[in-house]
Amino acid sequence: MLPVALISLAYSSLIWISQKIFDPPTPAIQASSTTLVFELRQQHAVTSEGAILFNDVSRTQQALNFGQETHAIPTRRVQRARPLSPEVFQQARARSRLFKENVAIDWEEDEIVAPDAEKRETLLALAKMTNNAYLEPGEAGWYELEKQWNVSYPFGWEPDEDGFRGHVFATRDNSTVILAIKGTSMGFLGGGGPTTSKDKFNDNLLFSCCCARIDWTWTTVCDCYRSGWQCDQDCLERSMMDESLFYGIGTNLYNNITYMYPESNIWITGHSLGGALASLLGVSFGAPAIAFESPGDKLASTRLHLPQPPATHEHITHVYHTADPIAMGTCNGILSSCALAGYALESRCHLGRSIVYDTVSNLSWSVDIRKHGIVSVIDNILNASWAPSEEIGREVPSAVIEEDCVECFSWEFGDFPLALNNHNTSSSGLGRGGCGSG
After folding, report:
1. Are residues 212 and 346 in contact, defined by beta-carbon separation less than 8 angstroms?
2. Domain total for the chain?
């Protein structure tokens, strides 16, 4: 049994509900099914040191707390490419970073069952899962997905715990497992909490052009800025090895899940920072990922030296709308809402494919950081029956690949040794921002 302090960190995973207790046996869901049914399974915890622990919930507790209803999510089959082994993938990353070599690796291409992102029902269910990752059960704003979601277990809500948070869900036959990752808790959006500091650190390291260097008054998250608009590339890449970076914690968690469910198909979802992490993990492991309102993640994938397969990541889907300046990559510059709150969210280019709701044209929304929240997406977009006029008959807009996307065009990246520059003397270009469409 985990200590109470670790139980409070526990990620709510799906708890297996005994068929003998609740209902007669039913046929297992096959991988070719058009819908999958998910239920709570077990708890897993991430300590403040990054260690991952797992704990099953007792059958008695299951019987007392959970009903027998299930929640179905439509699926479809997609092509994906994944590395032949984690070792090959990590070796390619290391050679790319250390020797600046683009190592060609062999990819395994196959067809897998993924969430059907063309159905509003799918996106709505996954969006509610990502929303609940921010909250304790019963807290204001909690979405009740159905009876089996009415009772959950808090994780990471102790005042002194500030780490990676999320929920895990699974089908009864373990054919599919979903990892839902919490995004940034921003105090200025009414959130906050113990994860705020590390959330901001990850945001400013992953999504800024150069260590969150907005102007000379900012405290940067790494020491890679030089003078003018120069940034040391090797320094940036070394900074991505920081032990506080959630990507590394996420890879450890994913590996633990695959150890527990070696035959399962794993999906990943998340909102904002959680969505970007879902996408990066999806690229790393070939897992289907649905990311909501994520900042651009392509820049981070490059700096993390994630090998790219020859084909587009069809299994990675970003979902966002045009009134969200964070997902659109326009919440930058010294006077932007993000910068005023201390966030350097400057990236704009997304991996995989993007489903973009044009809320500015079709709903007359103004661009506003308050539209970034997942609740706004759930209540005003996914719960609404509307679609772009040119796509009448579709449940969601068509997914597109973001081509000709340019970011951080103001910056020069290269070999700029610290000893040759005074990185705090220049404030040239104040307010220019860090990225744009070029």
Report:
1. no
2. 1
3-state secondary structure of 71: strand
Between helix 273-285 and helix 196-206 the angle, nearest 10°, is: 60
Q: Is 78 domain-assigned?
A: yes
**Percent of the chain clearing pLDDT 70 (strictly above):** 70
- What's the pLDDT tens digit per position in 83-130? 888 788 888 888 887 777 677 788 888 888 899 999 998 999 899 888
Furthest C-alpha separation in the chain: 73
Structure tokens at 62: 């299951």
Phi, psi of 198 (to 5 degrees): -70, -35
Single out the residue of 165, 203, 208 nearest to residue 52, CA to CA: 165
Q: Is residue 420 part of a domain?
A: no
For residue 272, indicate whether it is catalytic.
yes
Q: What is the pLDDT of residues 11-67, one digit of tens each?
A: 333 333 222 222 333 333 333 446 776 655 544 445 555 555 444 434 434 443 444
Distance (Å, rounded) from C-alpha 22 to C-alpha 12?
A: 21
C-beta separation of 354 from 322 below 8 A: no
This prediction has a pTM of 0.81
CA dist list (Å): 419 to 101, 416, 428: 26, 9, 20
Residue 287 structural domain: 4-182+246-406
- In the set 272, 294, 336, 347, the catalytic residue is 272
Residue 381 lies in a domain: yes
